[in-house]
Amino acid sequence: MKKHVLKRVFLFLSALLLLLTVTACSTPKDSQLILSDAEEERVVNLFSPMEKINPDAQNVARTASELTIALAEEKVGTTMAYRTYTAADYQDKTYDDVTLERARNNMDDMYLLNPDVISALGKEGLLADLSDMECVDNLRDVIITANTVDGKLVAIPQEVVAYGLFINTDIFEKCHLEIPNTPEEFLACCQVLQDKGYETPVGANRWWLETFVFAQAYADLYNGGDTEAEIAALNSGEKKYSDYMRPSFEFLQELIDRGFIDAEKAVVSEAIEGEGSDFLAGKTPIVMAYWGAANTETAYGKTDFSMQVIGFPSSRGQMPVMTITGFGIGVEAEHREDAIATLDAMLTDEALQLYSEMNQVISPSKNVEVDCVDSLKPLNALIQENVYVLASNANMKLEQWGNVCLLVRDLLEGATVEECMEKLDRLQAEAT
Questions:
Q1: 207 secondary structure, DSSP code
Q2: What is the pLDDT of residues 231-246, one digit of tens each?
Q3: Are strands 79-84 and 43-48 parallel, antiparallel or unpaired?
Q4: CB 264 within 8 A of CB 204
């Protein structure tokens, strides 16, 4: 009898001990599961100039970019955390300076990059290869050409930025002028306009005169020759950039010498702010700007005159100048795979159709076409025929967009063409 009682007590105590053990283990285990679920929230950190602090905030004015990000978040199951740049936060540092610092220190997952930064980070091996993303099969060739470094596609944009000449066609008709195609025809038009009382026919700023340089320098390289072979020769030093660009710098010097542009005003003028008011007032017949300026009422989207956007003059006729920005992902990003999946979802044809329709821009996808305003149709026709030059090409060892812009500023400030070319040769030697 006593043995039987002792056995029952032993079994009871054993069961109680087991219960206490399970209970003691279950509480922290459940807590760990809850913590794990929270930690497993799939966040992708994006650094960009976008002014958006709280990604969950309700905002009826969300941009096209944010809407495509929202589509991607839902499809992939990630959440984009916005880390934004403001000049006040970084004082004298430019967005490009800050982006380079952050990417080199692996501070974010995804970055919205300008052409010179794509080039720099790609050459440093700090950007992930995006070549295997599904969206790549649908990209225009120009994207692959511009953003490939050492065989790796390191950035992809949501839009292709094209620059052209904005022409007041009412003034051209009044002066009985045909739209110019070549540098010689352009100079002749400027002379007639000046003779007719338009003192400074071309409105310029300190940023975009380089578009004339690229159109004339690279018209044959991108539209007639063996592009890869020529770029390889430039990268090796076998060919000089100065041989390509000297005629176009001489062209700019002639524009300055003949008073067709105001060099002193241009060198201190911000884009559109400097020349925009005179163009809108009908005082300046010609300006240069990017595609989106023709859609934007704060730029040239609402004029009191007829306007056409054409390509820049070149030996091959009108030539659009294109520069490619793009989203890049850190090669050692903390959430690299989620970032790649999210970006791939942002760049589906469905998402790009939404983005392009809202912004009325050129899509990076060859499958997405959007109707453009009438003024842009001459430029768009050339682009659809794959007629263009690139002002940014990450596969060139010498960064193009930023360096040529600074050289043009030297010219505006009084440097000779020869001095600009000597500086260009030095930059090429340093790059190679």
A1: T
A2: 999 999 999 999 999 9
A3: parallel
A4: no
